[in-house]
Amino acid sequence: MLRRHRKKLIGAAIVLFWLLMMGLLGRREILPLLRGPSLSTNYPTSPTDSWMMVLSPGEQPLGFINTQTAPETRDGLPGTLLTLNAILKMQFLGQPMRMHLGGSAWFARTGDAGRFDFAVRSEEHSARFEGVLGNGVLNARIHTAGEVYPLSLPVNRELAIAGIAGTSALQLDRLKPGEEAVIEAFDPMTLSMGTARVKCLGFDTLGEGDEARKVRVVSITSHNIESKAWLDEEGQTLRAETPLGLILQQTSSSEALSAVSREVPQDLIQAVAIHPSGKRPVRGANLMRIRISGIPDAVTIPEDANQRRTADGDLLIAPRSQAEDSASTELPENLEPFLAAHPFVQSDHPEIQRTATEIVEDRQDPWDKARAIYEWVFANIEKQGVLSIPSALDVLHTKVGDCNEHTVLFTALARAAGVPARMALGVVWSDELDGFYYHAWPEVYAGEWLWMEPTLGQPIADATHVKLLTGDIERWPRLLAFLGKLRIEVLEVSG
Description:
Blueprint: H1 12-21, E1 48-55, E2 61-74, E3 77-92, E4 95-108, E5 114-122, E6 125-134, E7 137-144, E8 147-154, E9 180-187, E10 192-206, E11 213-222, E12 225-231, E13 237-241, E14 247-251, H2 253-258, E15 277-278, E16 287-293, E17 307-309, E18 315-317, H3 350-360, H4 366-380, E19 382-383, H5 392-398, E20 400-401, H6 403-416, E21 421-430, E22 435-445, E23 449-451, E24 465-470, E25 487-494
Parallel strand pairs: 15-25, 19-20
Antiparallel strand pairs: 1-2, 1-14, 2-3, 3-4, 4-5, 5-6, 6-7, 7-8, 9-10, 10-11, 11-12, 12-13, 13-14, 16-18, 16-25, 17-18, 21-22, 21-24, 22-23
Helix pairs in contact: 3-6, 4-6, 5-6
C-alpha cells in the first residue's frame, strides 16, 4: 500500500546544486574557466586546495565543499584543472538526506578548448553532466536514468563553468568599490547560457582581534538572484552568503570533514516557509486574493486564466476547470514546445511512450487523457522526499518522489500522449505546516491552460497555489530570487 500522506515537499536538488556550486565563488586560481575583457588573468603555477564548510542560517554545519586546482597540460596546451568534491546533509520534513556533488573541469589558458564532467548523487538517484568546448561550440551529454542525452550550444564569448551566477573564476580582487563586471556563463545544471553582474560593494573587516582581516565585499547577481562574498587581498573567498540564507565559511579540511558526521540540524523547509499575514488560507479553496511584496522589481509574477493581477495590484487566484473546447484536435502553433522532449522530461523514450499509451487507452479528448494520467501518477508514485535532480524516466523506474518527481513524470506522460504540458513552480498552502511552502505542479492545455495537482490529489489544483514561474527544469533555479524575500498577505479566501 502506497503512503498517501499529503505533506508539502520542497524541490531540494535545485537549491542544493546551486548552493554547492557557490563554493567556486571568487576562486582566483581558476581563471581559465572565466575571462572577462576588463579583468587581467593570472594562472596558478602550483596546486591549491580549499575547504569551505556549509552552514545553516543558524550557522550549524551541514557539509563541506572542497575545490582543488593544478596546472595541467593536455594535447600540448597549457591549462588549469579544477576538481570539486562536496557533500551536504539536510533534513526535509523530518527525513535526513545526503547529497554528493563531484567532478572536474579543465580549460586551456588560450583559445576555447576545455571539458568538464560533474555528477550529482543522492541515494539511488544520480545525474551526470559532461561536455567538451571547442571551435565556439559546447557539446555536452547528460546521463540520467541509464540514458544519455546530447546537447549542443554555441558559445560566442568567453565561457564560465559555474552553478550560481557563473562566478567560479572571476578575479574579483581587481574590482574597485563601485566597479562592475558583466560576464557570460554556462550553467551545467540548467543547460543554458546566461549573464551575471559582479559588483564590488566596498571593504570590510572579517574576524576579531589578531584574526581580523581586511576583506573586499562583492555581490553577484544573475536572474535577479543575488549572493554575497567576502574576499581577502588575494581574491580568496573567506565567506559567502546564498539567497537561501545558507553560509559558506572557509575552514580546515578536518573541520570541514567533521561537518558530515554531526547531527543534522533543524528541518530547513521551515527556513524557507512563508507564514502569511491576513486571513488563514483553507486547503481546497476555489478563490484566493493575496498581496505579494518583498520581491525584486524586475521579477514579474506570471498571469494566466488561473491567476491574474487586479486593478489595484492584488493577485487573484481562481483555477479554471475543464474548458468547453477541450476536445479540439487543432493546437495553436505556439504549443509545440510543450509537446517536446527534454533531457529530464523524456516524453519520446519508449518506456514513457508505452506507459502513456497504456494509461490513456482509447481516450481522444485531451482533458480525459490528462485526468487518466493524473489518477495514475497520484496512485502509483509514493509520496516521499527525494534529494535528486528530477528525471521522468528515473521516477517511472523508482516510483518514489516529491512534488518535483510527480510533476516531471506527469509532464512527460502527458506530452507522450499528445497533451501539451508545462510545469509551474511556486508556493502552496499547507494546513499541516501552517504556511506556504515551495512546490511544483503541472499544467495541461485542454482548450486553455489548466492547473493539476498529482502530488496532493487534486484534479484541479486549488486556489492556495501561487504560481511564481513557468517552464522546464532549466528555469527552476530562478526560484531563488524569491527565497527569503517573498511576503504574502491573504486578503480573501473562499471555497
